[in-house]
Amino acid sequence: MNAQAVPSLGAPQETENDRFKRSFGSWFWTSMIAATVMHFVIFQFWPTLTAADVSFSTEDLEMIELPPEIEIPPPPQRIARPAVPVVATADIEEDITIAPTTFEDNPVEDLPPPPPEQEHDISSAPVFTPMTVRPEIKNVNEVIRAMEREYPAILRDAGIGGRVVVWFFIDEDGLVRDTRVSQTSGHAGLDEAALKVSEIYRFTPALNRDKKVQVWVQFPITFEVR
After folding, report:
1. Could you tell me the CATH number of the domain that includes residue 153?
2. Residue 208 DSSP SS3
3. Is residue 165 included in any domain, yes or no?
4. Which of 58, 150, 166, 208 would you label with 67, given CA atoms 20 to 30 Å apart?
C-alpha cells in the first residue's frame, strides 16, 4: 500500500489577516510620525498672516455759537375800512340850460389862430408814422443780387437760412437813411448780411394823404438755399 501524506493537525496556519494585525502597530506609529513631521514643515514655512488695519478716526466736533434769538415784531395794525359814501341832499334847479353858441356872438375874426404845426424828429428811433400810401421797393432785382452776394458762404454751404425783419427809416425822396434789426434770425452772420443788403434798397416816397413824409417801415429779408 502506498502511503499518503496527511496534513498535520498540530499548530494552526497563519493567515494574511493575522499578519496584517501583527503589522498594525508599525504602520500606525509610522503614519503618526509622518503626519507630525508634515505639520511641522507646513507651520514652519507657511507665510505669516497679518490682519488689515480696520481702525478709523473721527474729526473733532466744532462748537458753533447760535445767533441770538430774533425778536419778531408784532403784526401791523389792521387797516380801517374806508368810510361809506353818503349821498348828500342838495337843491338843483331843473331849468338849467346852456346858452346857444352862434357865429353872431363869436365872429370868426375874433377866434384865435390855429396852433402851428410842430415837426417832430422821428429819425432817432423806430416809431409809428401815420401814412396813407406805403412805400414800395423800386429795385427788386438789385436787392436779390445783393442778397446772393452778402449771404455768408459758411452758412449757405451748411444749408442754414433765416428771416431777418429790418426797420427802414425812409425820407421824403424814398432814400434809406437808417436801418436796424427788428427781429433777429438767430444767426449774427445773417443779421449783419441783412443790414448790408438793406443799404441797397430804394423805395417810392411814403404819402400821408397828398404829402410826402418820412416813415419807419419794416421789411423782411429772407436768406434760403435754393
Report:
1. 3.30.2420.10
2. strand
3. yes
4. 58
